[in-house]
Design goal:
The protein is α+β, with helices and mostly antiparallel strands. It is built from four helices and ten strands; from the N terminus they run βααβββαβαβββββ. Strands 1, 2, 3, 4, 5, 6, 7, 8, 9 and 10 form a ten-stranded mixed sheet that branches. The relative contact order is 0.17.
Length: 182
């Protein structure tokens, strides 16, 4: 059985409490500065994914990525995107190709669901990894709605990257997430 055969998908509506806990445990392990958030929830700012891909080994979740479906504005266009949320790979499985496999499977599912674009935010140290999977850095302003409901620019330390999943290119212009980030 190959690694890809061990990748599972779960719709958010079908996620069991045990799977939720297993994913949160992985997120706490992979993102120690954010343990306070991930000990309580798998996602930022109350934005749940539509579905998640994960790998379970010996009863533990060793890899995960969630996909948030969101209609956003890019320039004058309203588009639906697959927002990548919390790609995480256990330290013992890093450099195994699991992260890339999770991303490939999650975005293939987005394409199957008719979503034309992927969107993610990453730190500079991860841009090369995502670029190797075909993601493009976007040199443009990204905006979200903050906790008070005001429009706020996403800090430049969060690199915005897009992936075209359909026939059309990502529209030009500033991007408004039309809600909180994920």
């Amino acid at each position: 059985m190959s690694t890809s055969d061990l990748i599972e998908i779960a719709e958010e509506s079908d996620l069991s409490p045990d799977l939720d806990q297993g994913i949160r445990d992985l997120l706490c392990l992979c993102f120690p500065p954010d343990v306070t958030v991930f000990s309580q929830s798998r996602y930022w700012h109350g934005t749940a994914p539509e579905y998640s891909f994960f790998r379970r080994e010996a009863g533990k979740i060793t890899g995960h990525v969630g996909i948030v479906r969101r209609t956003i504005r890019a320039g004058a266009s309203q588009i639906t995107i697959a927002g990548v949320q919390n790609l995480a790979v256990a330290p013992t499985r890093r450099k195994s190709g699991l992260g890339a496999l999770l991303m490939i499977r999650a975005l293939a599912e987005a394409r199957r669901r008719g979503i034309a674009f992927g969107l993610l935010f990453c730190v500079p140290g991860l841009a090369r990894f995502y670029s190797s999977l075909g993601w493009k850095i976007q040199e443009r302003a990204f905006f979200m709605t903050n906790e008070t409901g005001a429009r706020e620019r996403i800090p430049d330390k969060n690199i915005g990257m897009t992936l075209t999943l359909g026939p059309e290119p990502f529209p030009p212009g500033e991007v408004d997430l039309q809600g909180r980030d994920w």
